[in-house]
Amino acid sequence: MSVKVRFAPSPTGKLHVGNVRTALVNWMFAKGQGGKFVLRIDDTDLARSTAEFEQGIETDLAWLGMYWDERHNQSKRFDRYEAAAERLKAAGRLYACYETSEELDRRRKVQLSRGLPPVYDRAALDLTDAEKAAYEAEGRRPHWRFKLDGKRVAWEDMARGHAEVDTASMSDPVLIREDGLFLYTLPSVVDDIEMDITHVIRGEDHVTNTGAQIEIFEALGGPVPAFAHMPLLVGEDGSALSKRLGSLSIQEMRELGYEPIAITSHLGRIGTSDPLEVGASVQALGDSFAFSKMGRSPARYDTADLDRLNAQALHAMDHKVAQPRLAELDADLGEDFWNAIRPNLQKFADVVELANIVRGPVTPVVEDPAFAAAALAVLPETVDETLWPTWTNAVKEATGAKGKGLFMPLRLILTGQSHGPDMATIAPMIGRERIVKRLQGETA
């Protein structure tokens, strides 16, 4: 069987780490199986959906390397949902209800006070045509509920193993609101059937919904897809993911300087038995993905891990890959420069400051003018790859300084920083003229 999955975001906001993880696991599973990934825009809420957010979804997925094989807008398929609703009505599975939200709330409170589960009592099924007409005359418009079979629905979950839901303990789900707006469930099932979706992969908070949706698949006569319900994301301490992290958008992460492969490696491997290391590519992540590697415990989202992976991705990046981005930042000083500074990168934008070490301006930190003068006096006339060992030996003989007392003052003078790239590599790139000026305490 050819695998086909879907990611169905609503264009009512920006993609954040939670829903991108769902998209990524779908993408990895499909591509690892040589299957297809469908982007299905859930824009049935016309009032809240925007073209800007829709474009943002596409931009974010493409930036992360998750290209889609098919793309659909649910707002262009209302006729398909209307037809399905009529079929369910004709079969007696979709029925009109006229209770207001206040009336339903009062009923739930009464049920709870009696120790009963707050399940909808199906009172609307007993309404006569005259009672319905009276409600209509009041200006009420019906919402439509799907009549559940009230049975144990079972499936073999790819992430959780054997799963069962007793739909007798559930309220009949509302599929169409009073204003005629289709809620997510019916369009999702209709599209899964008509688009030949083979696997539905989502968070474990949807397990109960799956029981009801399987009954809708069956009522519409469509094949029931396989399901996988992943453990949810939690914070690094195991608590619920904070609002700040839970709503951290991919656009913000891009602006903060995170690499796409660091994000996909992090979200794709947390909560699995795979080592938390950067993948060679997002396709490679898919090739190695398996639900059998996914644990049952919540996946811990730790920004320290993401920062480590981001640095790892930069440290392994070839100059050919980096060169166009270096050029955009006016920091392409050649392959030797890139190889010298990339072990010091945390974010790609750090290259600008490191490039300035070579080309200036740098304000030297001269803590001991006498030491700087002695170092200047023995500075070789020829500055090449032998500069650093030759010069530091000469400075050692001239001053008696050694170890940190020798190397740190020179680093502070030449770079203005107490840390940074290997001086043996970077010093010749600075050039003799700038070295002289910096030893003299001048900004250069």
TrEMBL record:
Q: Where do the Glutamyl/glutaminyl-tRNA synthetase class Ib catalytic domain residues begin and end?
A: 3-274
Which Pfam families would you find in this protein's record?
Anticodon_2, tRNA-synt_1c
Question: In which residues is ATP bound?
Answer: K243
Q: Among the record's GO biological process terms, what is one? A: glutamyl-tRNA aminoacylation
Can you state which reaction this protein catalyses? Answer: tRNA(Glu) + L-glutamate + ATP = L-glutamyl-tRNA(Glu) + AMP + diphosphate
What this chain does, per the record?
A: Catalyzes the attachment of glutamate to tRNA(Glu) in a two-step reaction: glutamate is first activated by ATP to form Glu-AMP and then transferred to the acceptor end of tRNA(Glu).
Describe its partners and assembly state.
Monomer.
Instruction: Write down what this protein is called.
Output: Glutamate--tRNA ligase
The organism is: Brevundimonas lenta
The beginning of the lineage is: Bacteria, Pseudomonadati, Pseudomonadota, Alphaproteobacteria, Caulobacterales
